[in-house]
Amino acid sequence: MDVNVANRGAFGSALVTLQPGEEFVSEAGAMYRASGNMEIEIKSRKREGSGLWGALKEGAKAMFAGESFFLSTYRVKDNRPGEVGLAPILQGEVSSLKVGPETWICAGGSFLGASSGVELDTQYQGLKKGMFSGEGLVYVRAAGQGELLVSAYGRISEVEVRGGITIDNGHIVAFTEGLEYDIGKAGGWIASALSGEGLVLKFRGNGRILVQSHDRDRLGNALGPLLPPRED
User: Fold this and answer.
1) N or C: which end of the chain has fewer CB within 10 A?
2) Is residue 228 domain-resident?
3) What residue ranges of the chain have pLDDT lower than 50?
């Protein structure tokens, strides 16, 4: 398997080359091109043997995480290599991460795709953290062994954490498991509210964090008042 990430300004994408017997999974709707020998199967997010109720529970968790209820699985249907091109909805970069031995936690909406050796699950971050962080109640946890694709709004940069760091909440893409964090305000609750500063995540421990340069929610808040009222 070969995963080639192309970041051209604000329009990142990935081209995945699969050999016979290999599989890759992505968010449903992420595929923009595929070779003629590529088989595409769309499945709901449910665990093996969990039935309809399991699918509904996984779908609800995916919704809170900002992810799709469905996943697309790609595999070649003959003895030749095949290609599938993947891209996020928002304008921004795509990054490829190695899973194993590190486990990655993806913030809401940042998961794009993964190889079959990566085990995907949703991780509850607690009612208080979820409500105050604005990122939903669950993150996507990527464990196992393989390749992980994440996407961002704007440019992606990596931060090495040794002890502690503060990151604006709207700029988190993914972080390695083991880092702990608390929700707070950059300059105190009253001062931050008056200045317009948002919430921050105060990480502690040792690990890696991917951050995005832009915040889609702040863009939406800025554009919202400028749009004409919706007609019923």
Assistant:
1) C
2) no
3) 47-67, 126-137, 189-196
